[in-house]
Amino acid sequence: GTVTETEALEWKKKHLKLDCKGTDDGPLLGPKYWANFLRRHPQLSTKHCVRFYSQREAWATYENFDHMYDDVYRGMVKSRIAIELIFVDETGDDTSQKNDGNQGGEKFVVGVKERALLSSSFDGC
Q1: Considering only CA atoms, which of 26, 30, 22 is closest in space to residue 5?
Q2: How confident is the model over 101-125, as a mean pLDDT?
Q3: How far apart are CA 9 and CA 19, in angstroms?
Q4: Which of 118, 7, 1, 103 is nearest to 53 (CA)?
Q5: Distance between CA atoms of 113 and 47, rounded to whole angstroms?
Q6: Is 46 in a helix, a strand, or coil?
Q7: Cβ atoms of residues 38 and 45 within 8 Å
Q8: Can you give the pTM of this predicted structure?
Q9: Residue environment code for 57-75, b if the CB has 16+ CB neighbours within 10 A, otherwise e
Q10: Residue 119 pLDDT greater than 60, yes or no
Q11: Which of 26, 81, 85, 92 is the most buried if burial means most Cβ atoms within 10 Å?
Q12: What is the largest CA-CA distance in the chain?
């Protein structure tokens, strides 16, 4: 075990008067511990993970989107589908990811204003 595990076992022995051997004593820290931990740290929250293609984060930069939109708009103007001044408003974040991997309601601890992201291969999405 780690130093933290040893400290948790020592705390249990001292405060709960348990004879913890560390093998089949159940979980080291139970659900009540996590509930109290999250209450003590309101900046943290548990959320379901959002699975996304592993290359998306590397590719999805402002510069790449700027170039992509310029090329698309140039082609639309050239084919007379659009006029030169076009405004596109991106709404939402529909990533169309199938089978997001949240098996059994699994949640992850993140900051309150953050999203839990889990990188995945394209085939697994």
Answers
A1: 22
A2: 68
A3: 9
A4: 118
A5: 11
A6: strand
A7: yes
A8: 0.37
A9: eeeeeeeeeeeeeeeebee
A10: yes
A11: 81
A12: 79
For residue 113, the 8-state DSSP code is T
Q: How confident is the model at residue 94 (pLDDT cuts 50, 70, 90)?
A: very low
49 close to 108: Cβ distance less than 8 angstroms: yes
Q: Tell me what the mean pLDDT of segment 7-18 comes to.
A: 79
Pairing of strands 107-111, 44-48: antiparallel
Alpha helices in the chain (DSSP H): 3-15, 31-40, 56-59, 62-78
Q: Which residue's entry shows tokens 């309150």?
A: 112
Residue with tokens 């590397």: 58
Sign of dihedral through CA atoms 59, 61, 67, 70? positive
